[in-house]
């Protein structure tokens, strides 16, 4: 079992602590939090070992799980990598592109593995249809959340939209051609609502909307490609797959057939892929353990996390 330590014992940090403690692939050594009062409180309440010195924790583990505020990601990750530790780091990978690129260089230099916590890659609804999303040409995403002060230290693009940016980049096999976006600050000092239009060199267009001041939560993405429409509800963990094929010469009474202006007939049919239940956070942590133990590539690499950050920052710059 890999010895793991957690940096940060906030809301998400406590979730990571619980899951790592339950995992059969890790041995939880303990955690560090700069807030001693909070650290002692978490130790007393849950029984996890609290380290009041970050270096002592790093020296005692094989893997560091970094669940600290974004501004501290780089310093924590750099220190861990230089000690030869593998790092799991929450999204966004860092606060700046230069920091992310330096982490990649350090990771390669010290021959350690790194993974970024883009948890929606492990959402069972997305996993159920990802292999069916082959050549999307139009994508529309909506990620709406009720207001929560936690996370408002960064623009909504880095807080919420970056989940959809990463998912889109994982299925669109093309470079970004252009980005147009707008963002509005309503409650926070940084934008709370944002819309972005991303055009890729292969002709695909993605329209993304994110808000953290909505009256209801929504996390939906729709993918349109030749002869197929795929809808993913990340929140409800449901999928809808509608496909078309050449219609038979003799259509059945219940067959749904469309005819275009050229007279071509297409039959519409539905697929119902199974959506398996899972804990996405546990899955991302345990697949990282597998990558370390088997010396394979993590599912969400530091390079991919950097690409998502790059696009997110380009969106912010275009406001």
From TrEMBL:
Residues 2-118 form the Gfo/Idh/MocA-like oxidoreductase N-terminal domain. It comes from the Bacteria. Residues 156-216 form the GFO/IDH/MocA-like oxidoreductase domain. Pfam families: GFO_IDH_MocA, GFO_IDH_MocA_C3. GO terms for molecular function: nucleotide binding. InterPro entries: Gfo/Idh/MocA-like_OxRdtase_N (IPR000683), Gfo/Idh/MocA_Oxidoreductases (IPR051450), GFO_IDH_MocA-like_dom (IPR055170), NAD(P)-bd_dom_sf (IPR036291). PANTHER family: BILIVERDIN REDUCTASE A. This is Oxidoreductase domain protein. It comes from Cellulophaga lytica (strain ATCC 23178 / DSM 7489 / JCM 8516 / NBRC 14961 / NCIMB 1423 / VKM B-1433 / Cy l20).
